[in-house]
Write a structure and sequence with these properties.
Blueprint lengths: L11 E7 L6 H13 L4 E6 L14 H12 L5 E3 L2 H4 L6 H11 L4 E7 H5 L7 H5 L3 E5 L14 E4 L8 H9 L10 H10 L6
Helix pairs in contact: 2-8
Bound molecules: adenosine-5'-triphosphate (ATP) and magnesium ion.
Length: about 200
């Protein structure tokens, strides 16, 4: 049990889903800010399997994305990484992610974290009515996107420091031989170079 976890309340578990192709500092700041604001005991990063909303696009192998996520989060004692989505067959649906995490951590209260762009797509999720009952939702601000107020009491919004970083931009920068230092953690810069990721666009 972590120091700040109060024994009289359930574990508060943040869930940060993403493609993480690659993970970048915008993801890490979002998780850190929500953890502080909502007094979370832990944030679990969950790299997607084959992302259904990106099925038309080329996505780096799940193992590379998983390992970059592990490297990026290793230094934070409150950050962990889950394989539930990459080990499940088929496309990733948030409902399955939340059900699997609940099965693993039945006593935890879940806080699903999304950026403003993903939040505005939330209504297109499969099984959305079931998804609402599985977790609280925290939408964080993201440069270039307007946060939509979904008007539900288990959905809240948090303004976080604006980092205009996207994985798409990081991939394009690597392909164009531009630096990604300080956009992604140092270990991720080196991992990308080591395995020659994103060099073919
Ligand atoms: P891509 O460009 O490949 O879509 P991305 O940067 O959007 O990558 P994702 O893995 O798609 O990253 O996003 C995972 C989650 O992190 C989403 O909820 C997304 O809204 C959020 N997110 C990503 N970048 C930021 C950022 N700079 N600030 C706030 N939230 C972010
Ligand atoms: Mg995205």
């Amino acid at each position: 049990m972590s120091e700040r976890q109060h024994s009289d309340r359930p574990l508060r578990l943040g869930v940060m889903g993403g493609t993480f192709d690659p993970i970048h500092n915008g993801h890490l700041v979002a998780a850190s800010e929500v953890a502080a604001e909502y007094d979370l005991d832990e944030v679990v990063f969950v790299p997607t399997g084959q992302p259904w909303q990106k099925a038309d696009k080329q996505v780096t192998s799940a193992e590379h994305r998983y390992l970059m996520t592990v490297i990026a989060t290793a230094s934070n004692p409150r950050f962990t990484v889950s394989r539930v989505d990459i080990d499940r067959e088929g496309a990733t649906y948030t409902r399955d992610t939340l059900l699997d995490l609940r099965a693993q951590r039945p006593d935890a209260e879940l806080f699903f974290i999304t950026g403003a762009d993903a939040m505005s797509q939330i209504m297109s999720w499969r099984d959305i009515d079931q998804v609402w009952d599985l977790a609280n939702f925290v939408g964080v601000s993201r440069p270039g996107y307007v946060m939509s107020d979904l008007g539900r009491d288990n959905v809240s919004q948090l303004e976080i420091p604006a980092l205009a970083i996207s994985s798409t931009d990081c991939r394009e920068r690597v392909a164009a031989d531009k630096p990604v230092w300080y956009l992604v953690p140092d270990g991720v810069v080196q991992y990308i170079a080591k395995y020659g990721l994103y060099t073919e666009s």
